[in-house]
């Protein structure tokens, strides 16, 4: 709207109450549309003005007065809070002191559709994520063999033995046994020297013999024998 020769931009979707004046001068065949925020005096300069508009050619002596609005492709709600009309002279002023305000309060974040949709999506994803985590743990679990239950020295992790043998370095190789290479190592945290016998993949078929040897070594104790500390 125009305010003292200065144009002021007002957003219709702001929800603020806006007052409009529509004046038609049948002598000059001119129609003016003036707008301002409710409660402000009528601006001197109209927002829209059109001359040479003879309404008598399109209007009968008796007509109905009403309102219509359009927002193009957008969806909106328009309200007429108060109005006055006269066919001769200036229309009566409106009492705008008791008009309701249509500025809607913003909903809290937890009440918005996006938040609710996010919660629903999260509630669907959480069981799936939990199932994947449990499946991963199940796949990564240590499988306990039957012979381990019968005879149970300490069990070491692959990481512990890798650190002890400096990554199974070639210079730590002590020799080769019947089931694979034997590495010298230092047990982490104890500084105790150990020998690590790595079973070759090629001798998997003789695993039963290897298990028998482990059981025997676990029960034997002699100063000239290496005591079995455990396995991985």
UniProtKB/TrEMBL annotation:
Domain of life assignment: Eukaryota
Transmembrane annotation, as ranges: 114-135
SUPFAM superfamilies: Concanavalin A-like lectins/glucanases (SSF49899), Protein kinase-like (PK-like) (SSF56112)
A molecular-function term among this protein's GO annotations: protein kinase activity
Gene3D superfamilies: 2.60.120.200, Phosphorylase Kinase, domain 1
Keyword ATP-binding: yes
Key words, A-Z: ATP-binding, Lectin, Membrane, Nucleotide-binding, Signal, Transmembrane, Transmembrane helix
Every Protein kinase domain range: 168-232
Localisation per UniProt entry: Membrane
Record's GO cellular component terms: membrane
Protein's membrane topology: Single-pass type I membrane protein
Keyword Membrane carried by entry: yes
Chief place of localization: membrane
Membership in a protein family: In the N-terminal section; belongs to the leguminous lectin family.
PANTHER family, sorted: PTHR27007
UniProt-recorded name of the protein: Protein kinase domain-containing protein
Natural source organism: Taxus chinensis
């Amino acid at each position: 709207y125009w305010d003292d020769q200065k144009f002021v931009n007002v957003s219709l979707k702001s929800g603020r109450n806006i007052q409009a004046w529509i004046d038609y001068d049948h002598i000059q065949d001119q129609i003016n549309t003036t707008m301002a925020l409710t409660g402000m005096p009528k601006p001197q300069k109209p927002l829209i003005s059109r001359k040479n508009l003879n309404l008598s050619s399109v209007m009968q002596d008796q007509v109905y007065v009403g309102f219509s609005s359009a927002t193009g492709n957008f969806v909106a709600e328009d309200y007429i809070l108060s109005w006055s009309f006269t066919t001769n002279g200036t229309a009566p002023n409106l009492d705008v002191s008791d008009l309701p305000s249509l500025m809607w309060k913003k909903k809290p974040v937890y009440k918005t559709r996006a938040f609710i949709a996010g919660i629903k999506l999260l509630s669907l994803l959480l069981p799936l994520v939990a199932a994947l985590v449990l499946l991963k743990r199940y796949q990564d679990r240590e499988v306990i063999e039957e012979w381990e239950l019968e005879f149970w020295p300490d069990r070491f992790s692959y990481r512990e033995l890798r650190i002890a043998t400096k990554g199974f370095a070639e210079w730590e190789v002590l020799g080769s046994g019947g089931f694979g290479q034997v590495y010298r190592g230092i047990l982490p945290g104890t500084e105790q020297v150990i020998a690590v016998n790595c079973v070759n993949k090629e001798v998997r078929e003789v695993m039963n013999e290897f298990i028998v040897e482990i059981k025997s070594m676990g029960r034997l104790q002699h100063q000239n024998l290496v005591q079995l500390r455990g396995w991985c």
